[in-house]
């Protein structure tokens, strides 16, 4: 069966689509078959990223490794089980179609709580939660006492992940490997950054996730989206790759893939 990687966070602007595209493209470049789904049916940032890539490849004639992205299929009422939620049916149909032809399936979730996102989290073998490195986004995971800085308890998103873990345990499936990605970490070590890091480490021990370095705030990530490219594509497209920031961005992708510890994957990009 395909290994399912879910990229989830209930706040927008954390880098979910950038993370999804770079992980998907990296795996394809390493010879893996990768299916891709976007559950944000309104904005579809991940879907648009792939569409931009297809348009760029068609326009330039360049052949670049790409994931097999598909929209959620429509499901006729007659095809659903009695009382089955139509969104559940659409997601199940999409995963069932991709599994026979995929080693990995990347599922990008919307930046809000939806039925589709909830179900997707229960399907995750690996869960990646990109997080902007601040206490504003840390609130997604846990509530903090403003006076003492102590963790009061898990947030509603953490509780959703807990529920997904419980569902998987009841079904006899292996536990979710949950990775929290620290995105947009400042170049300088500031007091607030250290406090966020310490809080994440404490919380990771309490509710069971791993902390991994993510992507810094770089112009290159924003510039590549309209063309559907990733930093891994620079050497194949003629885009200036000698910029030190671009080289560092590529290394960040390598470090992320290594931190994910995906089964059967030896990072060689």
TrEMBL record:
Protein name per Swiss-Prot or TrEMBL: Division plane positioning ATPase MipZ
One Pfam entry name: MipZ
InterPro entries linked to this entry: DNA_Partitioning_ATPase (IPR050678), MipZ (IPR015223), P-loop_NTPase (IPR027417)
Superkingdom as given in the UniProt entry: Bacteria
Matches recorded under Gene3D superfamilies: P-loop containing nucleotide triphosphate hydrolases
Organism: Fuscibacter oryzae
